[in-house]
Structures are given as C-alpha cells and as structure tokens.
Design brief:
about 80% helix; elongated
Length: about 210
C-alpha cells in the first residue's frame, strides 16, 4: 500500500507543478523554465522508485496463473524506470551545463525531434503502456478488481495512442498518453492501494472462519 500512496502523491505533485509551470508561461510556445523545470525533472526520477515497487508488490500478490503477466509488468516498468531515470538525469546535468546550440538541442532539447524526447516517448508511451496492460490481466474478478482492470486498460491504451505522435509528427497526440498516466493511472493506483489495504482484513476473516469450522 505504501508504494501505491507514494505513486499517487508524486504524480499529483508532478501534475500540480506542471500546471503551475504552464500558467507561468508568457506564451504557449515558450518551454517551461526554472524552477518548475528542475522540480519536474527531479520528481520524474523520484517517481520511478515507487512505480517499480508497486509492480513488485503486484507481482508478489498475483495468483499463480497470472504470474507470467505480473512478471512482464514488472520487467516493462523496470525498463521504463531505467530509461526515464537516465534521460532526466542527463537532462538535469549535461543538458543544463551544455551551451545552447543546434547540436545540443538535437540531443537534449525536450522539443521534437530530439534524442531525449524520443527516449521519453519510448519509456512512457511504450514501456509504461505495456506494463499497465500486463498488470491489468492480474486483476481478474468483479467489484474493485474489475474497476482496477478497467482503469489500467484505459491508462495503457491511452499511453499507446501517444505513439501516434511519432508516426504523424504531431506531438499533440502525446497529450492523450499524458492523460493516461497522469490522470487515469493514479485512479487505478488508488484502487490498488485500497485493495491491498483490505487484503490483510480479508485474509484474517477467512482464517478465522476456517478455524471456527
């Protein structure tokens, strides 16, 4: 449950800083500047830790017949964490220290096309999408399980749609993916946290009923 709470808190904080940064822009064409940009970069690196922890817990909790999907979810989320941490650490260090020119922009600029932007799309619109789509299979059943599965499927599908931005060369398609992991995914994680909070209670009740019999 702690991993779920940490994920939601970091994502919500990221969303708040992002909105504040966008509101502070003099024009929509101007990129977000400091201190908002640096805070966002740090938060996205921090987020990778609870994301991997969450998928580790999901894998441990998953029923035996769903372990193959939960292990795939953990692998894809670990790939996301590795790529994301590298990309944003490089942007924070090398990118900030490099003189602004066309060559450096092609490598470190968060405008399309650039190397770091392509890697960010790979991480979030592919690896994240595959991770949550695999995780969705783990939550089979009705009630809260059905809600979690639906939210994860929606989040993953929206993230995959972000890949259209690369095909058509229009980065506005990424906003669909961003909505998937900034808006829909936290709802799924909140429900997962509620589920894991209930698990000890449910287990204790089952054991108590078995002992009584």
């Amino acid at each position: 449950m702690a991993a779920a709470v940490a994920c939601v808190l970091v994502i919500m904080t990221y969303g708040g800083v992002l909105i504040a940064g966008l509101c502070a822009l003099p024009s929509p064409q101007v990129p977000i500047g400091d201190p908002f940009f640096t805070i966002l970069e740090i938060l996205i690196i921090v987020l990778t830790l609870p994301l991997v922890a969450l998928m580790s817990v999901v894998h441990a909790w998953a029923p035996q017949q769903a372990k193959v999907y939960s292990s795939m979810a953990l692998v894809f989320m670990s790939l996301l964490a590795g790529v994301t941490a590298c990309v944003h650490f490089v942007i924070l260090t090398v990118g900030h220290a490099s003189p602004p020119n066309e060559e450096m922009a092609l490598l470190f600029s968060f405008t399309w096309p650039s190397v770091v932007y392509a890697l960010d799309i790979l991480a979030w619109d592919l690896f994240f999408a595959l991770a949550v789509l695999c995780a969705a299979v783990v939550f089979s059943g009705g009630g809260l399980l059905r809600l979690i599965r639906a939210l994860l499927l929606l989040s993953g599908t929206m993230a995959l749609l972000g890949l259209v931005s690369v095909v058509v060369g229009d980065m506005r398609w990424r906003f669909i993916g961003i909505a998937g992991y900034v808006l829909v995914f936290p709802l799924a994680v909140t429900c997962i946290g509620v589920l894991f909070f209930r698990v000890p209670t449910v287990t204790a009740a089952v054991c108590s009923a078995t002992s009584a019999e």
